[in-house]
Amino acid sequence: MLFRRTILERIQRLDPERDAQRILFLSWYHDFPWDSRKALEFALFRTFAVPSISGLLDFSGEFVQRAQKRYDDTELLIAEFVEHGYDNERGRRAIRRMNQIHHRFLISNEDYLYVLSTFVFEPRRWIDRFGWRPYSEHERLANWFFWRNVGRMMNIHDIPSTYEAFERFNVEYERAHFRYSESNRHIGEATRELFLSWYLPRPLRQLGQPAVHALLDEPLREAFGFPPAPLPVQLAVHGLLRARSHALRYLPERKHPRLITRLPHLSYPHGYDIEQLGPTSSPPQEPPSRGHGG
């Protein structure tokens, strides 16, 4: 028996396309605040297994040198238009700032499409595995309509016309483009160390690395050059996450949304302006070619 049903019942009364922004807000900020945040972290992590994407980050030096700031910038920009909506003035400013940052570099439309697809599919995949209830059909479709509209506002072309077609693109893209490169390893290690820095002091972080590896599927792990986690670590990590999800089913429902923009961020202890998020230095004069491997 689930005691936390009120939010899902409200979601079920909404239209997945017309009310996509409202559904995503209710889902992510009331029912799944921690899970949606982790899902987006690992969604971004997946994109670093593509040499053309990791090569750009490695070449610019932004992620390795300023991993925490890069993470905070990305999280806050996304949170601004998820929390306020892309029809809201703050949401439009966040998407405009995101476009300004990306347009400094030569990025293929196919890579843009893939990154967009991870935001559509990874939250559902994570929550179906580790959430206290499965993602509903309304949430699945609303997530698709929401990110499709964001993609259009980012001038991403050739977005597949259906959820199913976009998921096929996502799977086929990973099958074709996930492969090991030095730039993958550099960015993957920087990201893994960032994750561990939130929970462990520096001397213990190496001991925590297998716990991160336990959450990566084999193609992703191999693209980073990470060793497999020992089986006891895999069982422990997955078991703890499932035990957490089981316990959450019986806790009282969240009365107030857990807004990411209201949480403390290490890079901005005194607050931030949307237009100041992102790198402030000039981009490299010669961006790496596609497939650059570090």
From TrEMBL:
Source organism superkingdom: Bacteria
Domain ER-bound oxygenase mpaB/mpaB'/Rubber oxygenase catalytic: 54-230
Region (Disordered), start-end ranges: 271-294
InterPro entries with a match to the protein in the record: MPAB (IPR046366), MPAB/Lcp_cat_dom (IPR018713)
Pfam family, one: MPAB_Lcp_cat
PANTHER family to which the protein is assigned, alphabetical: ER-BOUND OXYGENASE MPAB_MPAB'_RUBBER OXYGENASE CATALYTIC DOMAIN-CONTAINING PROTEIN, PTHR36124
Protein's UniProt name: DUF2236 domain-containing protein
Lineage, broadest ranks: Bacteria, Pseudomonadati, Myxococcota, Myxococcia, Myxococcales
